[in-house]
Design a protein that fits this description.
Hyethyz_kinase (chains A, B, C), 264 residues, alpha/beta, nucleotide-binding (chains A, B, C), homotrimer, 50% helix, nine-stranded mixed beta sheet, globular, UDP-N-acetylmuramoyl-L-alanine:D-glutamate ligase
Amino acid sequence: MQAVLEEVRRSTPLVHCMTNTVVPEVTANVLLAVGAAPAMIDLPEEAEIFATVASALLINVGNGSAEQHEGMRRAAPAAVSAGRPWVLDPVAVGALPVRTTLARDLVAQHPAAIRGNASEILGLAGVSAGGRGVDATDEADSALATARELAATSGAVVAISGPVDLIVSADRVTRVTGGSDLMPLVIGTGCALGATVAACLGAARAAGLDEHDAVVAAHALFAAAGTAAARTTHAPGSFRTAWIDALYELAPAQVAELVDIQES
Amino acid sequence: MQAVLEEVRRSTPLVHCMTNTVVPEVTANVLLAVGAAPAMIDLPEEAEIFATVASALLINVGNGSAEQHEGMRRAAPAAVSAGRPWVLDPVAVGALPVRTTLARDLVAQHPAAIRGNASEILGLAGVSAGGRGVDATDEADSALATARELAATSGAVVAISGPVDLIVSADRVTRVTGGSDLMPLVIGTGCALGATVAACLGAARAAGLDEHDAVVAAHALFAAAGTAAARTTHAPGSFRTAWIDALYELAPAQVAELVDIQES
Amino acid sequence: MQAVLEEVRRSTPLVHCMTNTVVPEVTANVLLAVGAAPAMIDLPEEAEIFATVASALLINVGNGSAEQHEGMRRAAPAAVSAGRPWVLDPVAVGALPVRTTLARDLVAQHPAAIRGNASEILGLAGVSAGGRGVDATDEADSALATARELAATSGAVVAISGPVDLIVSADRVTRVTGGSDLMPLVIGTGCALGATVAACLGAARAAGLDEHDAVVAAHALFAAAGTAAARTTHAPGSFRTAWIDALYELAPAQVAELVDIQES
């Protein structure tokens, strides 16, 4: 995990983000803070090209336009053809029809990772009707069996975010505990986590590091920064600032001291 | 008023926001700070569905796409059919033709509240040509007669934001004084107020509380947080952070101590 | 330069921004902090009208929709017809085809200024393939000859942003040194600089001040605020807040003390 975070800082992976209308700015600031470089490109013609150039691609199906959705359908296979990892963030999938169809179609396009809350993972798999917006109404563990099956069928590392994050591959489950209750009160912490998963995967694939470790690294860094920031403030406005500062200031070697990581 | 703010914190109303391209992030962070849950959903097919599920709907006609406008036209009647309150924020209406037509069409769709500055309320009613962008070039009181007529004909509570906020129903006018001169220097304080009006209305309607009081509650909370934040800083970057912290930290019982509320 | 900054604070120029999906909020907050008024308007029908009313227009060709691009094509000539200055920010031009065609078409529409990093200026002129996203992979000085030719042929003041900013007219080059290494770690500092160039040009043109000086003034103010903010913090989250505070708090007379300005 530490090796992946060091590789991100060393190589500055360029992350192509196709994300929702709410979080582009915080996503970009988070990627810069962790040592990556963001580029938001949604137009279909440009997205298809850029996905082959960037280190990794994020597709977040939260609030977007029909034009952006067309771009996502073209960018995902382009990234795969070029050997680039891409991450699917199935925001509110299961609850809303257009994005549910889109996300299920995209699962067949070989994402390297899928990151969502338990409701979204269950909604993507067709097991539940999804959460209310970005809320997690299911506990992470309730989605474990579904995540394991999704990992096996899609080939992706599946991450279920919650008070305890579960990172699930076909043969491995990692639990990351840390962070702060204030994180869900700052919009975009989940969406920016998806982008950071992409950054870690981009750096890991280029350097030949383990991709399950890369997904764990992103979650551990986020939780560690949340733990650190919560020591300085108790309200969400100043927490947001402190958390971005912590993402920037934490050395990779400090991350493991601030979170609990369990393998099973 | 205090009862409405307590009900927001107790019930976490889900606010469906269809808003302009500038303010989604700050709007979401404000809704989270006041105890509500945001969801931005603009695609026509999804917006029409989600408006029936959310506690309340915000339609802010500031900078949006033709696709989003189509979604707004479908979402407003869907919300009304499902018994959900919706709020119209007529940004720069009167000054620009597409949004003026849109906003005037939407007034006929039974908004529970209309919130804007004096220029926008006058522009919506066809009395003036509207302000320059989001600036208020008319004083709130100059729009009082127009607001009262708009309240009577539309059935909405009409709120005119300014140094003194006027909340106007057919038979009641409430004046809220407080806040800070720094608030107009932070983008989205007005737009996020529209979203918070929706949160308060969603909570109030579900609990059977008075809807004029709900609109007053949102304005009082915003002004109180502005008053509190202005005690800690004199520049807009740090004011923005302090203001979001104050929205989160102020207990409903503290709000009335920080603002002046006059009924007439 | 000081006269331009004073004129901005005195006249509150209204800046019509057509910008990318990542930076509208920070751009608006920066414009408010420096004393201008922002309005983001992208719909073609409205943009064409508003460009004739605003003090100045910014066209930033970073991530936008086809609908917005159509609006840009209509707004630029409308601004020129009305005697309003407009600024072109050629984000990632050279690297991506749709925006490269758009930006090259727009150069023929008489921009008052063009602002980008060295890669983007070279990409706009067709000299290189552009940078990777918003990164500057070329040093500012390497683009000087190209910028001088672009200034001569387009009639625009051409600004090349970097650790040292170069402001280039056909017969004058100004170098501005200052700021902080943290500025590239805050998304939108470059894009908001383009908007502030527009604000300074809008104020300068209305008051009959020199337009090269206006472009210098925007760069000097940004660098001075960066220098001031870097004295208070060493991480990008808190730097962003301190930098916006400094943009608001710095008096025009203080700017020259915090940066180095060389004419040649």
